[in-house]
Write a structure and sequence with these properties.
Layout: E1 9-13, H1 18-29, E2 33-38, H2 41-52, E3 58-62, H3 68-82, E4 87-89, H4 101-126, E5 132-137, H5 151-170, E6 175-182, H6 191-198, H7 200-208, H8 218-229, E7 240-243
Parallel strand pairs: 1-2, 1-4, 2-3, 4-5, 5-6, 6-7
Bound molecules: NADP nicotinamide-adenine-dinucleotide phosphate (NAP).
């Protein structure tokens, strides 16, 4: 199947490692020009060099999505530099389970506002795209009970609901909005490697709940994102695509 991504322009936040990096790699392989950000200059430079080897235009900057002004200025700048934005993937999360006020505020600032502010800044460009697509990275933590009560789960659920709302309001402008909810995803340097090494019971207990018997890879999540972002998914808007090897047990009616 031809995805029709060649020549498109995408902005992916938090793309120096893990899922964001895999999304950027796959989009670049499909011929998509890219703007990426993260907070570590050296890691941004390394990612930009690797992505540019795929022969597309790549720009990367140190941006903290919690800083509204610099985040939105960066999106406006890269939208001009790339000559537009067709695809926006807000991927950054604060993660974690800090139940203090500070924890809730951190997840609100980074997960929710990192998504809504990014969309606000990208909209003037998306409105001019013939294939405008927003793919929000949510989590299975937002659709079923997982671990204990914590801001991460509630905030991810909020993103799924907001994505659905946006899909309705932006459809008349030709902008599709979907979510991808990964189940546990394992990669070197990621949260699940840390959990495996430091909380082996939690790691094994989680693994035991995945019918496929393994955690996902960033590349498997990236393929779900690339499809939803592409013109091949032209009729699809407002979905929350769960990619979890059967980890969640609900029936998605
Ligand atoms: N891994 C999983 O099992 C899993 C499961 C479900 C959902 N997810 C979701 O998938 C997304 C990616 O998670 P991940 O585990 O692949 O990666 P991650 O380890 O959380 O890293 C994400 C990327 O975001 C950057 N980043 C972090 N905070 C940032 C900030 N404030 N501003 C700009 N960039 C920032 C990181 O670089 P710097 O630290 O250098 O900034 C890195 O490039 C998240 O939304 C997460 O909730 C992950």
């Amino acid at each position: 199947m031809e995805l029709g991504l060649n020549g498109k322009k995408a902005v992916v936040t938090g793309a120096t490692r893990g899922i964001g990096r895999a999304i950027a790699e796959l989009l670049a392989s499909e011929g998509v020009d890219l703007a990426i950000c993260a907070r570590n200059q050296q890691e941004v430079d390394t990612a930009v060099s690797a992505l540019a080897e795929k022969g597309v235009k790549v720009t990367g900057s140190v941006v903290d999505v919690a800083d509204k002004a610099s985040y939105q200025q960066w999106i406006a700048k890269v939208g001009d530099e790339l000559g537009g934005i067709d695809i926006f993937v807000p991927n950054v999360s604060a993660g974690g389970g800090d139940m203090s006020d500070e924890g809730w505020v951190k997840n609100l600032n980074i997960d929710v506002l990192g998504t809504t502010r990014g969309i606000e800044a990208a909209l003037p460009f998306l409105e001019h795209s013939a294939n405008a697509s927003i793919v929000i990275i949510a989590s299975t933590a937002g659709v079923e009970t997982f671990m204990g009560p914590q801001p991460y789960n509630a905030i991810k659920g909020a993103l799924v609901i907001h994505g659905k709302q946006l899909s309705q309001s932006l459809a008349p402008q030709g902008i599709r909005v979907n979510c991808v909810s990964p189940g546990p995803v394992y990669f070197e340097g990621g949260a699940w490697q840390y959990i495996k090494e430091n909380m082996p019971e939690l790691y094994e207990g989680t693994l035991a709940q995945i019918p496929q018997g393994r955690m996902g890879s960033p590349e498997e999540i990236a393929r779900a994102v690339a499809f939803l972002a592409s013109p091949a998914a032209s009729l699809i808007t407002g979905v929350n695509l769960v990619a979890d090897g059967g980890f969640t047990k609900r029936v998605q009616l």
